[in-house]
Amino acid sequence: MILIDGKATSEKIRSEIAVAMQQRKAEGKKIPHLAAVIVGNNGASQTYVNSKVKACELVGFTSSLIELPESVTEGELLEKIDELNKNNEIDGFIVQLPLPQHIDEQKVILSIDPNKDVDGFHPVNVGKMTLELPTLLPATPFGIMELLERYQIKTAGKNVVVVGRSNIVGRPMSILLSQKRKVGDATVILTHSKTKDLSNYTKQADIIIAALGKPEFLTGDMVKEGVVIIDVGITRIEDLSKKSGYKIVGDVHFESVSPKASYYTPVPGGVGPMTIAMLLKNTLIACDLEK
């Protein structure tokens, strides 16, 4: 089994972007500027946003962090997004999810300029992706595609099972892998929590994308020998043997599945680090779009 090292791959991508940035500076081109909006004091979101800002600094991007209180109204947040849409200095921005319950997430996503939507969530970008037009791809699926390409994992003609139908990972992955592209041309089955006899599908899969959000859901008796496992899940579960009191696991039961796998993305250190790397790549792409 080969472990797919998302951490090392993301560092390589960041290094490639840093080199491209030096070239941009030498040519007098605009330096990409990524802004992040965070609402409230969610610890996990704060940590994630801070890592995005730090990643920007490492590659030479300009970054801005906009922190808003939990009590901010939906109208006030939409006004701030409108400001960012109109600010020519900002090339791309994200609004960190989840948002407080009194704010409509879909309304927020719809309010973002598609050309600045580096998360790739806006319906315009989703539509362009579906039609195989150049666009800003959702960062996590974009990262998975990059891992498959860089590890030279063949997808053409392969049976792929995607477990989970979220708009952030599952659906985009099913679309991208079925398209005529370098990493694509696969026969894709999209499964979810209501799929009957799920293991009948996973046992036939050459590649499984596990993005259901249920810890250690996929077990060894549900996969065949030689399967490629892309584990997108990340959940903290109690483990009193650890100093922290918890351990981080994916949607796949590593101990039982890994002996059968040919390639495997570990959790942590697999798909996760790629998301930020592709966010940077999207920001670079957005910088060169005509606003």
Write the layout of secondary structure elements.
Elements: E1 2-3, H1 6-26, E2 33-39, H2 43-59, E3 62-68, H3 74-86, E4 92-95, H4 105-111, H5 123-130, H6 139-150, E5 159-163, H7 170-178, E6 187-191, H8 198-202, E7 207-210, E8 227-231, E9 235-238, E10 246-249, H9 254-257, E11 261-264, H10 272-287
Parallel strand pairs: 1-11, 2-3, 2-4, 5-6, 5-7, 7-8, 8-11
Antiparallel strand pairs: 9-10
Helix pairs in contact: 1-10, 2-10, 6-10
What does the largest sheet look like? Answer: 6 strands, parallel
SSE order, one letter for each helix or strand: EHEHEHEHHHEHEHEEEEHEH
- List how many beta strands DSSP finds: 11
- Fraction of helical residues: 25-40%
Summary tags:
291 residues, alpha/beta, Rossmann fold, 2 domains, three-stranded parallel beta sheet, 10 helices, 18% strand
